[in-house]
Amino acid sequence: MNILCLDGGGSKGIYTLGILKEFEALVSKPLSEYFDIIYGTSTGSIIASMIGLGYEIEEVKSLYLSLIPKIMRKGSAKAKSQALKAELESFFGDKTFMDFKTGVSIVATNYMTEKPFIFKRNVEQAYRLKSTFKPGFGATIAKAIQASCAACPIFEKVIVKTENQGDVIAIDGGFIANNPTLFAITDATKSLALAPDKVAILSLGTGNFIEKPIGLMGSFYKSLQFVQLFEKILTANTNTTEIIIKLLFDNIPIVRINDSYNQPDYGTNMVEDDLKKLKMLYQLGRDSFGKHEDQVKEVFKIS
To answer: Which of the residues 107, 194, 280, 296 could staple to 173 if both were Cys, CB 3.0 to 4.6 A apart?
Structure first.
């Protein structure tokens, strides 16, 4: 079973797309046909959903370069949230999880219970309550992505009306699992009861860069120290997941790509809206794949 896991990281998801562009070229087929399960958190949920619907990476990149400036240039959480909602509903319409061509899972956080809130397509991935399972809890793809991307206070919380959970107040999945690989491992080894040698995982981050000041609203957010704190929470969350995986699951074939770039020219942040910088991050993603290509070929048995 081939599994793809995509981290959160706001605008820096464009770096992830650079990696995926090269992987797609290597396997010479749509990634919806290559991966059996695709996990996405926050910005990774947008990428996961488009791949799950059969889009090629070049199409996902085009959407990103259009989407990011429209959303990230808004000056308030309310405006950003409204823009994200409008763009997602325009693109995904009323499509549901049953429209996915493969097993897509989207990670959000239940604000009230402070527990994972994971939208899944396949009942086989459910840990329990399988008899009342609803793909995506009955929500649309657009709503699930909104929930996963609700990075408070940069974005507003999202109320998700579900078929079997009632109304759920959701916030960004990065609070609970910015790197969703542990959830994917649990699905594969517990829910699906696969042996470690039957699983291959590609786990992609959004890169590590020198933090750039957050623009016009920076003085306000920085005074609260929250945007900076949020990025540190995501990084700490991601790093913890990587450590746990290395300690407990070294028998599962995993390729992790999440390179660091300490050059000032590459400085960025999760609300980056400069198209020139975004295109640079995309190219860095492609370069990152090159550094890990031999390992990718070994783990996924690609000649």
So the answer is: 107
User: Which entry of 45, 172, 187, 288 is annotated as an active-site residue?
Assistant: 172
The Cα 86–Cα 68 span in angstroms is 13
Question: Tens of pLDDT along 101-140?
Answer: 999 999 999 999 999 999 999 999 888 888 899 999 999 9
Cα–Cα distance measured from residue 119 to residue 125, given in angstroms and rounded to the nearest whole number: 10
Selected catalytic residue, list 7, 11, 32, 42:
42
**E strand or H helix at 138:** none
From the list 112, 137, 133, the residue with the least C-alpha distance to 124 is: 133
Dihedral of CA 222/224/227/232: which sign? positive
3-class SS letters over 173-233: CHHHHCCCHHHHHHHHHHHCCCCHHHCEEEEECCCEECECCCHHHHHHHHHHCHHHHHHHH
Q: What is the rounded distance in angstroms from the CA atom of residue 1 to the CA atom of residue 23?
A: 17
Interaxial angle between packed helices 13-27 and 275-299, expressed in degrees from 0 to 180 and rounded to the nearest 10: 40
Residue 42 designated active-site = yes
Tokens of 61: 């990149």
